[in-house]
């Protein structure tokens, strides 16, 4: 869990199993390298923070319908604007730093980090396997 402050209030971000299994945020974060559109990259931060706020701030940012989700998403966008507005030279606040904190928090999830590590190890093993020559096959 990590915290950030805006408007004189501290918000705790925690990615619980319930919200991770009910949202597609993991898919979005894992495919981030394939995103070429800056708008899609920027859009990911409020979505990530909204998911993380569900565990500790469901009363303020919770939702059940798509319409409620849109309202909560807009509230998070306003919150992020306020967070950056409160930035000072001594205490800089920006979306990129917040995104890094959220990503690190996701990686702390034991099950998730174990899965990522296992997938990376499998990928490395596949790279080490000898490649079978394909030149002996008949061309069709």
Protein model, in words:
There is one protein chain. This protein has 140 residues and is mainly α. The protein has seven helices and two strands.
Short characterization:
This protein is mostly helical and 140 residues long. 61% of the residues lie in helices and 7% in strands.
Structural class estimated from helices and strands: mainly alpha
Number of helices in the DSSP assignment? 7
Mean pLDDT across all residues, rounded? 83
- Percent helix range: 55-70%
Largest sheet geometry: 2 strands, antiparallel
Basic shape? elongated
* H/E series: EEHHHHHHH
* Total number of strands: 2
- Spatially, the strands of the biggest sheet line up as 1-2
Rg over CA atoms:
20 Å
**How far is the N terminus from the C terminus?**
57 Å
Low-confidence stretches: none
What is the percentage of strand-forming residues? Answer: 5-15%
């Amino acid at each position: 869990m990590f915290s950030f402050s805006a408007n004189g209030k501290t918000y705790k971000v925690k990615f619980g199993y319930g919200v991770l299994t009910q949202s597609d945020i993991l898919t979005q974060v894992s495919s981030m390298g394939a995103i070429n559109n800056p708008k899609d990259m920027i859009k990911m931060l409020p979505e990530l923070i909204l998911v993380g706020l569900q565990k500790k701030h469901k009363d303020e940012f919770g939702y059940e319908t798509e319409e409620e989700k849109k309202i909560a998403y807009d509230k998070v966008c306003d919150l992020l604007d306020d967070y950056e507005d409160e930035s000072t030279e001594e205490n800089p606040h920006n979306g990129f730093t917040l995104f890094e904190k959220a990503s690190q928090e996701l990686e702390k999830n034991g099950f998730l980090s174990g899965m990522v590590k296992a997938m990376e190890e499998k990928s490395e093993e596949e790279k080490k396997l000898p490649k079978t020559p394909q030149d002996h096959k008949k061309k069709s």
